């Protein structure tokens, strides 16, 4: 699956932006999430983030815009949020290196939290 996620990175080259993108790829047994950012890795309030989410359990994929999560006014980075219309995914850093927490909130179910591993990140601040 890691190879699949990395192979999908060229798909994002079709989006035309002014700067070189950087990518973060996350994976666990049920999800692959690819984030493409058109901002500097140091930009904690980036609003140019595109996502591709693969739901392995339901054999579905979603794409769209994501946002970075930060606290104001210092823009202390907290993670990312993806909203595909039916489900909101909040990806936040955990205490373990390369492990992130994903809070999944659907319109019909209670919120649940799973863990996901960062398997690729080509952006350094």
SSE topology sketch:
Elements: H1 2-7, E1 22-27, E2 31-37, E3 49-55, E4 60-71, E5 76-83, E6 87-93, E7 99-106, E8 112-121
Antiparallel strand pairs: 1-2, 1-8, 2-3, 3-4, 4-5, 5-6, 6-7, 7-8
Can you offer a commentary on this structure?
With 125 residues, this protein is mainly beta. The protein has one domain. The protein is built from 1 helix and 8 strands. An 8-stranded antiparallel beta barrel has the order 1-2-3-4-5-6-7-8. A hairpin with a 4-residue loop joins strand 4 (60-71) and strand 5 (76-83). The two termini are 27 Å apart.
Major beta sheet, strand line-up: 1-2-3-4-5-6-7-8
- Uncertain segments: 12-18
Residues in helix, %: under 10%
Structural class: mainly beta
**Strand residues, percent:** over 45%
How far is it from the N-terminal to the C-terminal residue, by CA?
27 Å
Domains, number: 1
Mean pLDDT: 82
Query: Largest sheet, if any?
Result: 8 strands, antiparallel, barrel
- Please provide the count of β strands: 8
N to C succession of SSEs:
HEEEEEEEE
Overall 3D shape: globular
Secondary structure tally, helices: 1
């Amino acid at each position: 699956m890691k190879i699949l996620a990395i192979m999908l990175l060229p798909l994002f080259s079709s989006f035309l932006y002014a700067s070189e993108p950087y990518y973060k790829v996350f994976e666990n047994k049920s999800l692959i999430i690819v984030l493409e950012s058109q901002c500097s890795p140091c930009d904690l309030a980036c609003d140019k983030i595109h996502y591709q989410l693969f739901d392995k359990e339901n054999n579905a994929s979603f794409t769209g815009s994501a946002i970075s999560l930060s606290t104001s006014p210092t823009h202390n980075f907290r993670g990312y949020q993806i909203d595909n219309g039916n489900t909101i995914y909040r990806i936040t850093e955990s205490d373990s290196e390369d492990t992130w927490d994903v809070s999944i909130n659907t319109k019909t179910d209670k919120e649940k939290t799973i863990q996901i591993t960062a398997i690729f990140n080509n952006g350094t601040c």
